[in-house]
Design goal:
With 275 residues, the chain is of the alpha+beta class. Helix content is 36%, strand content 27%. The chain folds into 2 domains: 3-114; 127-267, 3-Layer(aba) Sandwich (Aminopeptidase). The protein is globular and about 60 Å long.
């Protein structure tokens, strides 16, 4: 039983689409990354072509968009270790369910002599019953438009800095979401005070991203308000599942999303392989 690796996203989806879409929340990252590459080309995430993989002995998938680390689906520890043997090139790290990442990292360490270091720990949530915050924050939501582009780029860059991610494609991130109404702003007194983003729908699933409030506007309920607004908009547009990730080291956001009706599903980890 072996891994098959390809740069052809259509071939990857033909091999994995059925099982990935059967559990769209758990597979939110492989699905949304593959769709983004399908729409924008193999270098949608950086200067090197994306690589996709699947295992012919079980339902297992991997997506790698250098320079980002490969993202792994749920799989056996044996399949994860075999993938570490199959991949070649400089890996900055690996991301996925905790046990899967640990098995991959151990095999990569044996193969290369690298030492894995935990970069971040995340929790995947799915929306149950949406519970708007009480008392409600002052202000109202609106969909971001072209006139908000520079503000959204600046806030998105600030968001990625705060969560410790180096994303060189900030403008592409914002422009893509503006193209389908996937950026939302919360305004108070006509002034934008918070934002949230949304992925394109995949198998009825969307993922809330980049919830950000500048420091001068925090502790006023704006993050909860904009998250509620974008979640409600997604459901109204026909989404059957709404997901999001939180940083496990941030108790504030973990508590907030659970108050809004988001239910913890599973934990993920990202490890780095320092050069």
């Amino acid at each position: 039983m072996t891994w098959h690796l390809t740069g052809d996203v259509e071939r990857f989806l033909a091999a994995t689409g059925a099982f990935l879409r059967a559990r769209p929340v758990e597979n939110t990252l492989p699905l949304t990354i593959a769709e983004h590459v399908r729409l924008h080309g193999p270098r949608a995430y950086g200067p090197r072509d994306a690589v996709f993989g699947w295992h012919d002995g079980e339902e297992a998938a991997a997506v790698w968009t250098p320079p980002r680390p490969p993202v792994l689906s749920a799989m056996s520890t044996q399949a994860a270790a075999a993938l570490a043997e199959a991949l070649s090139g400089d890996l900055s790290g690996v991301s996925g369910p905790v046990a899967v990442v640990e098995a991959f990292a151990a095999a990569w360490e044996r193969r290369t002599g690298a030492t894995a270091k935990v970069h971040s720990r995340m929790r995947l949530f799915r929306l149950g019953t949406l519970v708007p915050p009480t008392p409600p924050a002052s202000g109202s939501a609106r969909v971001g438009g072209a006139g908000d582009r520079q503000l959204l780029i600046g806030w998105t860059a600030a968001f990625f800095r705060e969560v410790g991610e180096d994303d060189p494609e900030i403008e592409a991130f914002v422009d893509d979401r503006l193209s389908y109404g996937g950026m939302m702003l919360w305004e108070d007194g006509g002034t934008p005070v918070s934002m949230a983003a949304l992925t394109r729908p995949e198998a009825g699933m969307v993922r809330v991203q980049a919830v950000y409030t500048p420091r001068e506007h925090r502790a006023r309920g704006y993050a909860g308000a904009v998250t509620t607004a974008i979640s409600r908009a997604a459901l109204k547009a026909g989404a059957t599942e709404v997901a999001l990730f939180t940083d496990l080291d941030n108790p504030t956001s973990n508590a907030l999303y659970q108050r809004l009706g988001y239910e913890p599903l599973e934990d993920r980890t990202v490890v780095e392989f320092p050069s």
